[in-house]
Amino acid sequence: IKFGEKSATIEEAVDENRAITTVVAYDDKAVYGDLRAWHVLKDSDRLKAGEQLKFWSVDADDQMLVEQTWTVSGRVKKKLSDKTVAEGWQIKIVKQGKSATLIMDDDDLPIMLEDIGGFSIERVKEIPEPFKAERVSLRNTMSANVSIEDYQSLTELVIHFEYEHDDGEGVPEIVDANRYHDVIKYEKGYAIKMKSQRMGRDFEAPAYPLGEVPDDVKKFLEPTSMCQSDDEDLLKEALKLAKGKKDSVSVAKAIMRFADRRLGNGSGDTGSASAKQAYDERTGDCTEHAALFVALARAAGLPARNVGGFVYAYMPSMGKSIFGYHAWAEVWLGEWVPVDATVQELGTSARYVMFEIDEPGETHGNGRSSRCIRQDIQPKIDAYTMADGSAFEVKGAPKWEWGK
After folding, report:
1. Looking at residue 49, what DSSP letter applies?
2. How far apart are CA 239 and CA 92, in angstroms?
3. Residues 6+ apart with CB under 8 A from 379
4. Which of 234, 268, 298, 347 has the most other CB atoms within 10 Å of its CB?
5. Rounded CA gap, 264 and 31, in Å?
6. How far apart are CA 309 and CA 341, in angstroms?
7. Structural domain spans, the chain
8. pTM of the model
9. Alpha helices (runs of H) in 214-361, residue ranges in sequence order
């Protein structure tokens, strides 16, 4: 990032591809880095409980200005992992709907940062010898209380989970009501009624190439560092897949099937690879399937975007069902239609909880998966309905009053 007087210039490249340059204008906003924000509070004698500082900072990942709110909690003492006690100023940070806790020393250096994702960073006097890293465990799946083998035929799925509410003061609720689901927030957690996103019989596939695209959708045709729709190889592949097709649904299906054939199942050399890297390595899990679909769809002229949340699925290899944190895509076919290339679904059954749009410039919902992982949520199925109209209720499950 290069910071100028009125704007910041971000250059980002992945996999040795051409760098994408984005200019972020300050627009007369107060734009600070974290250290500068600390000094604004300290130098103006505002290190007092309840004092607030609102400012903007440049987010390189989302390539935009994001608002931060720092609230001084006061002077605190904190016992660190090495059993020593440190004293400093505690500040609650809310940024992009995520909260964190920072403790700063009088020497202008951080003592501790506790992130919403469950990460704690502490300053130490010296690195111990020998250094031994703590064991890290990542909980990305949750056991389900009901197994539904024909889960792709779900038209409605009702679940609930306990959750210690942490929203407010700029932090959004853990899940919103949207086209994927209705939501009830209750004292101890959330109830969610998932709805089918299948394309109905009356769905009219737009002609291909697309005609008019709404202004707020056009940005999802542009290449990004993770979805390089301007890459020569991906462009060539996309045009080959779209050749001769007259409607946009046929193009989307061809791209979806290709992405699954190309990648199979598994992870590549990078935890979250770009579309081009996944294409070259011919392997990837849900994030790579979504990224490759999005890049190819954009290259073919179909707006597409990455989304994330969690999903219900039956695992034949395990003989049981799970909820798992997941990434999938959406493609614009006159409206946004979910695409899960890992199971070759264009239009999805009622089993997806959508947290966020995972694209530069889209910040609402960021950090929701981390918040759920930190609280170790355990969703429970209460009821479900299948495509043939059969409905089931779990004995003893709570009854929810939807629509109130």
Report:
1. T
2. 50
3. 142, 144, 159, 160, 161, 310, 323
4. 298
5. 44
6. 15
7. 2-122, 141-393
8. 0.82
9. 215-218, 232-242, 248-263, 275-281, 286-299
Structural Rg of the chain based on CA atoms? 23
Q: Which residues have C-beta within 8 Å of that of residue 135, sequence separation ≥ 6?
A: none
Q: Which two tokens stand for residue 253?
A: 């299906």
Q: Which residue has the tokens 């061809």?
A: 254
Measured in degrees and rounded to the nearest 5, phi and psi for residue 33 equal -85, 170
Q: What are phi and psi of 288, to 5 degrees?
A: -70, -40
Burial 122-147 (b: 16+ CB within 10 A, else e): beeeeeeeeeeeeeeeeeeebebebe
Task: For the beta carbon of residue 343, count every other beta carbon within 10 angstroms.
Answer: 16
Contacts of residue 311, defined as CB under 8 A and 6 or more positions apart, other chains included, come to 323, 324, 326, 328, 340, 351, 352, 353
Strand order across the 20-25 sheet: 2-3, 7-12, 20-25
Q: How many CB atoms lie within 10 A of CB 206?
A: 17
Tokens of 322: 């799970």
Neighbours of 231 (CB within 10 A): 22
DSSP for 112-162 reads: EEEETTS-EEE--SS--SS--PPP-----EEE-SS--TTGGGEEEEEEEEE
Report the SS3 class of residue 233. Answer: helix
Tell me which fold the domain 141-393 belongs to. Answer: C8orf32 fold (3.10.620)
Q: Based on the number of CB atoms within 10 Å of its own CB, is 208 exposed (0-12), middle (13-18) or buried (19 or more)?
A: buried
Query: Which residue's entry shows tokens 């309905």?
Result: 385
